[in-house]
């Protein structure tokens, strides 16, 4: 025995190497060619809402960048949790995506431990945009800023109330955080959405509410309610007299809603990266940015890693808020 391998062994080794190389090339080609069919973007809210509008505005341009249509599929119900659960259980091949948001992904999983999905069941893909908020008050309150409102409420315990679009919504939970932080005696009044709340806010039956700027803007511009603070880095050109929270040393109340795209856990990173690039390309279009500006939506475009940090940060914040005030959620 000389210790040398027979020639057929070298031949077999060569064939194995060739097979491995071909498999690697096939996998690379498969990921490069994705998607091979239309991609479904599940929107877990009814058509016509703010999140639905963002999804439809981004879908056309992002689909062009992907080379396949990005098809909107509205699956509303239970505060966005029905549609979210369906995507969490979908095949992680990148052809079923979720329009995820602060309320349906982070807040819902914190508030309702029995949901059939958790934050970790969905991987962050791209942070599309932020939806800034505004604090508004009835026109009769003796305050022009949120800081002045805090002072007035401290001087009159039990006199003032705050509204929300329903229990366990962001305005409700932020409102109770606001009350607790500042030691205020205020009653929470829930409504079936923010629209009916404005009927009472404009007449002084309730006194304070946090809402999305796009919903509140017509009421503030017409003078039917007072704008007390905006959760933006700078004052809005449309509302130059409404100060930011930072101007009032109230940065700890700077809550902002966000919307993005998530995918089922296990979706290949090269696929999520391609989706992120398609949305980033869409957000670079001036027409889309102009449309977002009209809706008071701030484009972001952060990819998977940065979006994951945003989700985790907000999850920690909402866990703390919910744990600190369980009685108000009964």
TrEMBL record:
It comes from the Bacteria. InterPro entries: BUG (IPR005064), Bug_dom1 (IPR042100). The keyword Signal applies. It holds the Pfam family TctC. Residues 1-26 form the signal peptide. The keyword Thylakoid does not apply. Transmembrane segments: none annotated. CDD domains: PBP2_Bug_TTT. Gene3D superfamilies: Bordetella uptake gene, domain 1, Periplasmic binding protein-like II. Keywords: Signal. Belongs to the UPF0065 (bug) family. PANTHER family: BLR1237 PROTEIN, TRICARBOXYLATE-BINDING PROTEIN. This is Tripartite tricarboxylate transporter substrate binding protein. It comes from Achromobacter anxifer.
